[in-house]
Amino acid sequence: NLSSIDVQDNITGVTPAYLSGDTNDDGILEPGEVWMYNATGIAEEGQYANLGNVTGTPEVGDDVTDEDPSHYFGSAPLIDIEKSTNGDDADTPTGPTIDEGDPVNWEYVVTNIGNVNLTNINVTDNQGEVPVYQSGDTNIDGILEPGEIWTYTASGVAGVGQYSNIGNVTGEYNGLEVNDSDPSHYFGEEPPRSTLGNYVWEDLDRDGIQDETDTGIAGVTVNLYTGGEVFVTSTTTNETGYYLFTNLVAGDYFVEFVLPDDYEFSPADQGVDDTVDSDASVIDGRTVTTSLFAGEVDLTWDAGMYLPLSIDIEKSTNGQDADDPKGPTVEVGSTVEWEYVVTNTGSANLTNINVTDDQGVIPVFQGIDLNNDDILAPGEMWTYTANGTAEFGQYVNNATATGEYEGETVEDSDPSHYYGEEKDVPTAHPLLTVALIGMGIVLFLRRKEE
Fold this sequence. Notes:
mainly beta; Immunoglobulin-like; 1 helix; single chain; 4-stranded antiparallel β-sheet
C-alpha cells in the first residue's frame, strides 16, 4: 500500500485535483487501485508539453515516484491582408494625391500569419474592384501555408475627391473561416485644364505659310476629336479667323477643319516654323494627333485655305447684261457702248490681265487698279469699255478675260447681244392719201375743161 500520494505538474499554475478512485476513502493507494486527477488550462499557440509527476510512501522503505509527459499542438489559424494604393499603404486619408483620369494601382498582400495551412483564399474589394492573383503560391497547390505571402492586384482610373476602398480576405481551416481587412485611400485632384487653338487664314499665295498679307477667315467650322476619334465638341472661327477649345482634360486630340464652299486646303507642314504653317490634311482637313498635358496651352494648329484661281468677266451692251438674244434694240448706224467688268474671284493675285472681244472690238482699260501695280488682287474689279457702230439684225460678241498666277492661266468669257433695226421712212395716212389723189383728179378735170 502507498500513502501520501502527491500528483504534480511541472507547469506553474497547473494543479492536478483528485477526482476519484479511492474506493475505501482511506487515502491509501492499494495495489491495483487507480486514482484519477485532472487539471485545466487555456490552450496556447503552437507545440505544448507538460510533465505529470506522482510520489507515494510505502509501508516500508523509501518513497516511490513516477512521471509521464503529455503534449498538444495549439492551432492558430490567422490571416493578414495589407492593401496599398500606388505603392502607398494609405490606411488613413488622404493617401496619395492622384490627378483625375490617371491610373490607380492597388496591391493586396495576403499573408498566413497563423501556424496552420489555410485553403479557399478569397480576396475582394468593397468598391467593386476585382483583385487578380499574381504570385506567391510556391507549391501551386492552392494552400496558403504558414508564412506564405500571396500578392493580388487591381487597377482603376482616379476620380475627383477623397476615395476609400477596403481590401478583404478570407481563408478556411478545418471548416473555420478566418478573415482580415485593410483600407486604403487616395485623393483625386482635378488637374489644370488645357487649351488648344488657333487660326484659319486666307492663303493668298497658296504656299501653306502665313504671310503678313494673309487675313483670317471667319465662320469656319472646326471640330475636335479625341485620339480615338471620339467627337468632343465643335466651334467656329471668329471674325479674325481664330478659334479656341478650352477646359480640356489632358489627353490625345486632333482637329478637323471643314472647308467653306469653293475653298481648297493649302499644302500642309510647309517650312520649318510650326507656328505659321498649315496643319490640315488636304485630303480630309484633319491634323495629326497631339498629346496635351494638364494645363497646357497649345496654339499651333492652323489651317490655310484658298479659293481656286478664278477670274470673272461680265459684259454689257448699252447698259444691259444681254447674255441672251435679242438684247437691246438699237438703230442701225448708231453707236453701241460695251462695258467689260473683270473681277478676281479667286484668292491669288493675277497678272498679265488680257481682255479681248471676238468681233474685233478692242476693250480699253478704264479703272480701277487700286495699287497701280498691274496686279488684279483678289476681289479687285477692273473696268474696260469699247464702242462700235450698230449693224442690222441680231448681233452677238463674246468677251474673254485671262490672267496668270505663277505660270497658270485662268479664263472666263461672257457674251452680249443687240438687235439692229433700220430707221423708219415716214408714210402718209391712208385718208390723206385718198384726199390728195382726189384733189389731183379734180385739178386734172378742170384743166381738161379749160
